TrEMBL record, chain A:
Keywords: Membrane, Transmembrane, Transmembrane helix. This is MBOAT family protein. Coiled coil: none annotated. The chain crosses the membrane at residues 6-22, 31-55, 75-94, 106-122, 214-232, 316-334, 346-366, 393-411, 432-456. The lineage of its organism: Bacteria, Bacillati, Bacillota, Clostridia, Eubacteriales. It comes from Ruminococcus albus 8. GO terms for molecular function: acyltransferase activity. InterPro entries: MB_O-acyltransferase (IPR051085).
From TrEMBL, chain B:
Residues 124-283 are annotated as: Disordered. This is Uncharacterized protein. Residues 124-136, 189-203, 236-245 have a biased composition (Polar residues). It comes from Ruminococcus albus 8. The chain crosses the membrane at residues 43-62.
């Protein structure tokens, strides 16, 4: 089951939300959350439940052992933490990246593979690691840990929440109308991003990056659409995750933040899946280091690890290392040079760097990447624009403009700032702006449901 | 008492009291708006919750009217649950029972009119919905992988024709009679037996065309052929082969000349003969 399955949106989620509102006690809410999350996680894949329980109890037991040993026997604590890390890594590789074992006994039918194993493994691993580092105490109540690890709020997408950040909310939280309202709105806008915007860019991406009709503008538009497609998919999932959490009473940290040109490429990297990058930066010691050189080396290693976390492949590793290298260079000396440039130039630098580095994630071979690079300059392409790209762009031009307003921070701030100023004029204006927001949200909801239902109905 | 009051007033006058200031006004306005915030938040929550509950109940309670076979009945037992069969069938049944599926598809198409220019709404109740557009793009996404795969070029490999605009900015227009593949790419057709993917779509109410794409093709070969479904299924009928005149600056004539016409012969199927490779002309 995923967040965009109709049976989740209009079956499991409302049931879970309504049932958890029936009682105020966190124990009751946790119980409902665990049951519905196990159903969510194991939908069509009951095998996954066994996996969850095995790894969960392993994390719990190892966490307790590490907690008691870290002061008495440091070596044993390190060994246990490493063992838990290996378990988490094995789970992630076998179930999250099962394509690596396609011709072995570990190959599993895609239908059986549970969703979100990358995030699940990170949560389990980060818990024991934090216990070892002394950031949190080992959890004695297995149900609290279970709520943290299996909650469907955190299952499909980030943010990767550390146990220390959410422990208090697991033990005590309240659901009020403010949270319900904010949660539903965020969830609906996230759903719209996935079902409408991401799908529109998927079509342009497929048309533009079609190797059988490589055109100059197709190379540009196809790659930009590739970025937009995955940006809206991930941010949409994350918005849904945070929205669902708010409805359940949890407040999760931001995982995607605005891109600021002054922060250069380092800021761009950190703005995307912030919590995951934060975890790996913590793991490599980059976040605590005060030495520039050590930070730079850590950034390269961290980049490689994040690349591999996304996908275990050479291209993903190279993309991660390249991104880490540019971050490292910025930390060492580039930042001082680039900081003096005008904002427009900084934006151009960001777009160019993102295209050249992250564009590599689209290709499985260097020859494809090379052809695309040449195609950007019009070399090796016979035509400027293909019919397919042109039509897909025209057919989705309104959505492209909306997407641009969402992604481009200055434009979005101008729009939201204008709305705020208008609503501050008088109560009537305020009402008009709020009504427009409500109508917009309802429209997004209806269009998203229609899109999902039209695609799903047999 | 009066004296006391006057004394206090006189003492207070010694200190400069602030006038009604701008900040004060702003604070009053903020409080008023805060009260409004609560109202509008509640209204928003009410509307969204109502929408959610309405859709949830409608999807569960309203049946599409499709008949469920007895052999597809859900049976919950240990075996069916552990194998995932039960939940899978439950979901299938849920999706099959979604109410008014055709109307929802039509409504979705109407909504898509707002997405941009050139979106179309298919004829109501024709059953001819734009099934190609949503989850599966018209083109197999290969991100330029074909160059590695095309070393041994098969004679059956063809490609979609690329563009309407050349490098000089001249628009290369298609003639009206030219067939177009789903999604707008100019037609690329090959033998049905050698296909990678097939799209079927109806252009006329009673006529169905089959357009076949093989995306492993080298990027130099372009063939335009339209095969009517009727001619394929009837052995004695003749295939309708559409050959467009060639324009020298677009057509790769060397390829055309070197590629022999492909002919496939079958005892049961008609002979499908392809003309030399041509491109759709400009103008």
């Amino acid at each position: 089951m995923t967040y965009t399955d109709l049976i989740f949106l209009f079956g499991l989620f409302p049931v879970s939300a309504v049932l958890s509102l029936l009682d105020r006690s966190p124990e009751y809410k946790n119980m409902i959350l665990i049951i519905t999350s196990l159903l969510f996680f194991s939908w069509g894949r009951p095998f996954a439940v066994c996996l969850i329980f095995l790894s969960l109890f392993a994390d719990w037991g190892i966490g307790l052992a590490v907690g008691s040993l870290r002061d008495k026997n440091r070596l044993a604590a390190i060994a246990l933490t490493a063992a838990d890390g290996i378990i988490a890594l094995a789970i992630m590789l076998i179930f999250g990246h099962n394509y690596l074992f396609s011709e072995t006994k570990l190959a599993l039918d895609a239908v059986l593979l549970p969703v979100g194993m990358g995030y699940y493994a990170l949560r389990g691993g980060s818990y024991v690691y934090d216990v070892y580092k002394g950031k949190i105490r080992a959890e004695k109540n297995v149900f609290c840990l279970m709520t943290y690890e299996v909650s469907f709020h955190l299952m499909c997408a980030g943010p990767v929440v550390r146990y220390g950040d959410i422990e208090g909310q697991i033990r005590r939280r309240e659901v009020n109308t403010d949270k319900l309202n904010a949660g539903l709105n965020r969830m609906i806008w996230g759903l719209g991003k996935i079902t409408v915007l991401s799908e529109a860019f998927a079509k342009i991406h497929a048309a533009g990056m079609n190797g059988n009709e490589i055109t100059t503008l197709g190379c540009w538009l196809g790659m930009l659409a590739f970025f937009a497609q995955y940006y809206f998919m991930f941010t949409g999932l994350c918005d849904m995750s945070r929205g669902l959490s708010l409805v359940g009473g949890f407040v999760l940290p931001e995982n995607y933040r605005d891109i600021e040109p002054d922060e250069l490429f380092t800021g761009l990297v950190k703005s995307y899946n912030t919590t995951v990058i934060g975890f790996f930066a913590d793991l490599t010691g980059t976040s605590e280091s005060r030495s520039k050189l050590r930070t730079a080396i850590g950034a390269v290693i961290c980049g490689g690890l994040v690349g591999l976390w996304y996908q275990v492949s050479v291209s993903a590793l190279l993309v991660g290392l390249a991104a880490g290298l540019l971050v490292a260079l910025e930390q060492l000396f580039l930042k001082d040079i680039l900081a003096k440039l005008p904002t427009v130039v900084k934006y151009i630098y960001l777009v160019a760097a993102a295209l050249l580095i992250f564009g590599g994630a689209e290709f499985r071979s260097f020859s494809g990447y090379h052809r695309w690079l040449l195609g950007l300059a019009g070399i090796g392409t016979k035509y400027t624009l293909s019919v397919a790209v042109k039509e897909n762009v025209l057919q989705n031009i309104t959505l492209i403009i909306i997407a641009f307003c969402v992604i481009c921070t200055p434009v979005r701030r101008m729009i939201t700032g204008g709305a705020d100023r208008l609503s501050a004029k008088s109560r009537r204006h305020y009402g008009a702006v709020r009504a427009a927001k409500t109508i917009g949200t309802a429209a997004v909801f209806i269009v998203s449901v229609l899109t999902l239902a039209a695609a799903a109905s047999v | 008492m009066e004296n006391e009051f006057n004394r206090l007033k006189a003492e207070a006058d010694k200190f400069p009291m602030p006038e009604e200031c701008e900040e004060n006004d702003r604070a009053v306005r903020f409080l008023a708006l805060e009260t409004g915030v609560g109202h509008f938040d509640n209204l928003n929550l009410l509307i969204m919750s109502a929408l959610f509950i309405f859709v949830s109940v409608a999807f569960l309670a309203v049946n599409s009217g499709k008949i469920i076979n007895n052999d597809e009945e859900l049976t919950l037992n240990r075996k069916s649950f552990l194998s995932g069969e039960f939940t899978q069938k439950l979901e299938e049944r849920y999706l099959r029972d979604l109410p008014i599926p055709e109307e929802m598809k039509t409504a979705r198409e109407y909504a898509a009119l707002l997405y941009g220019i050139g979106n179309k709404v298919t004829e109501k109740n024709s059953g001819n919905y734009n099934t190609r557009s949503d989850s599966q793009p018209d083109y197999e996404h290969n991100a330029f992988e074909s160059d590695d795969d095309d070393n041994g070029v098969s004679e059956n490999k063809v490609t979609t024709k690329a563009a309407k605009t050349d490098k000089n900015g001249n628009t290369v227009t298609e003639p009206e009679e030219a067939e177009t593949a789903p999604g707008g790419g100019t037609t690329a057709v090959s033998r049905p037996s050698s296909t990678v993917s097939t799209f079927s779509y109806t252009t006329e109410p009673e006529e169905e065309n089959t357009v076949t794409l093989n995306n492993d093709a080298p990027s130099v070969t372009t063939t335009t052929t339209v095969i009517s479904k009727r001619t394929v299924t009837t052995s004695e009928s003749t295939d309708y082969t559409e050959t467009q005149p060639t324009e020298s600056d677009i057509t790769d004539s060397s390829v055309s000349d070197t590629d022999p016409p492909d002919t496939e012969t079958s005892e049961t199927e008609p002979v499908i003969t392809e003309p030399p490779v041509t491109d759709v002309p400009a103008e």
